[in-house]
Design goal:
The chain is an alpha+beta fold and 454 residues long. Helix content is 27%, strand content 22%. The strands form 3 sheets. It has a 7-stranded antiparallel β-sheet with strand order 13-10-12-11-15-16-14. A 5-stranded antiparallel β-sheet has the order 5-6-9-7-8. A hairpin with a 5-residue loop joins strand 7 and strand 8. Helix 7 crosses helix 11. It is globular, with a radius of gyration of 21 Å.
């Protein structure tokens, strides 16, 4: 029997709250764990890990529940949930420490009173600790680097239940791995500490939209995007969607934070404004207000599949046309399909690809394809839609973004980690020799193929 004082809350399949507790952001993931253990502190997390090890259970680690493939939860697996760890502290040196359950919105809200920006993600309910472990792209990345580039210390419960403090001075190998090696691979991260960037009073929130576009506009936008990401202003880190919506038809949006005035922002994005049909707004707001504008775009949950890859070289016009053709027809039952773009470069590229576990720093942008549906009846057709299109995206790109995982990525260790793969395997052997923390695309100490889909 599981000791009921193990944690503040232990959710088992017969508990009234089990159905709601097992749900994650992506509603296409419907997994039934053997137990969900909510941990309030390091000691409870350590006891949960030790219990799982004694019971010879695979352990999944969940914080915000935003893993696109649901690797934070699994059928018949034990889930250690760190969402109760909500502590946030800022010391006199400008070092910020957050608990393992702090979301982007909670982090941004805390920093609002001090005026600090922070290079974390865009979705308000994404967990900042989980995002950081995968590198951490956001609207400040070109200006300040990835979220993991601000990391100075991590606290983690390893496979033996030890609390480890990892930094450049202590367990530097683990510290290296936690900056891009992906969440849930090495243990339960209970806190992260960051070095903050300078105070910023205001940023310009840029929102450019093109409605009811034709093929020529889509091509021109993609051509402009490629040219801009290699030579554009590093104070602006946009993301974009070229989309096919059941409600709005074919369209494009481009959004992001510009670290400067609206006039400076307008000059920086002028190439996009020169495309026919551009409708733009520039809002000069505090960093907190900019994050809230972003937050208003996101639903509480969604049913989708997404695959994200790295682009290094400009695509030819014929390749762009072929990429855009992938979304001209939506899957049956799909309400939305898109080609998604996320600008890299700037301070992301200033760090050597092997200095942290995040390898693909020299890419120009992340490119992904996605399909969104609402009725579970259409799940198989949407997954087949993605499976038919992913090989072409794969053929034009190099490597996959670990925070945008796709279950059917071939040779996933090479895809996610590039030349950093072997070093990550050795670190996995050191801190989790029995492979206690594992999921279908986890780092495997034995280097065997990943687990079969659940």
């Amino acid at each position: 029997m599981m000791n009921t004082d193990l944690c503040s809350r232990i959710i088992l399949p017969y508990c009234p709250s089990y159905e709601s507790a097992r749900q994650i952001f992506n509603r296409s993931i419907q997994k039934c764990p053997s137990s969900i253990i909510y941990c309030r502190n390091d000691d409870e997390a350590a006891r949960a890990v030790c219990y799982g090890a004694r019971q010879k259970q695979e352990i999944r680690v969940r914080s915000g529940g935003h893993n696109y493939e649901g690797y934070c939860i699994g059928n018949g697996k034990m889930t250690v949930d760190t969402s109760p760890l909500k502590g946030i502290q800022l010391d006199s040196t400008g070092t910020l420490k957050i608990g393992g359950g702090v979301s982007n919105r909670e982090l941004y809200h805390f920093l609002k009173q001090y005026g600090y920006p922070f290079p974390s993600g865009t979705c308000p309910t994404v967990n900042a600790v989980g995002l950081t472990q995968g590198g951490g792209w956001g609207h400040s990345s070109r200006m300040y680097g990835l979220a993991c580039d601000s990391l100075v210390e991590a606290e983690l419960i390893d496979a033996s239940g030890r609390l480890i403090t990892a930094s450049e001075a202590s367990h530097p190998d683990l510290f290296w791995a936690l900056r891009g090696g992906g969440g849930g691979n090495f243990g339960v991260v209970t806190s992260l500490s960051y070095r903050l960037t300078p105070v910023v009073s205001h940023v310009t929130y840029v929102d450019i939209e093109y409605s009811r576009i034709d093929d020529l506009t889509a091509l021109q936008f993609f051509q402009t995007w490629q040219a801009w990401t290699t030579g554009g202003e590093i104070r602006f880190t946009p993301n974009s969607r070229i989309f096919n919506s059941a409600r709005d038809g074919m369209g494009i949006f481009l959004r992001g934070f510009f670290y400067g005035t609206p006039d400076e922002a307008e000059a920086a994005v002028q190439p996009f404004l020169d495309i026919y049909g551009a409708e733009v707004s520039f809002r000069y707001v505090t960093f907190w207000e900019a994050t809230e504008i972003d937050a208003s775009i996101y639903p509480a949950s969604e049913t989708f599949q997404f695959a994200g890859r790295f682009a290094y070289a400009d695509f030819s016009d014929s390749q762009i046309i072929s990429l855009l053709s992938l979304i001209k027809t939506r899957a049956r039952g799909a309400s939305y399909a898109s080609v998604a773009l996320y600008a890299m470069g700037g301070k992301v590229r200033a760090v050597n690809p092997c200095e942290t576990a995040f390898y693909y720093r020299n890419s120009d942008f992340i490119i992904g394809i996605e399909t969104v549906w609402e009725d579970c009846f259409f799940e198989a057709e949407n997954q087949a839609w993605m499976a038919a299109r992913f090989p072409y995206l794969h053929s034009l790109t190099t490597g996959s973004y670990i925070n945008f995982p796709y279950l059917y990525t071939d040779h996933y260790m090479d895809a996610y980690y590039g030349e950093n793969k072997e070093r990550l395997v050795e670190i996995k052997k050191r801190y989790d020799p029995c492979n206690l923390f594992r999921f279908p695309q986890s780092i495997r100490a034995d280097q065997l193929p990943g687990l079969l889909p659940e």
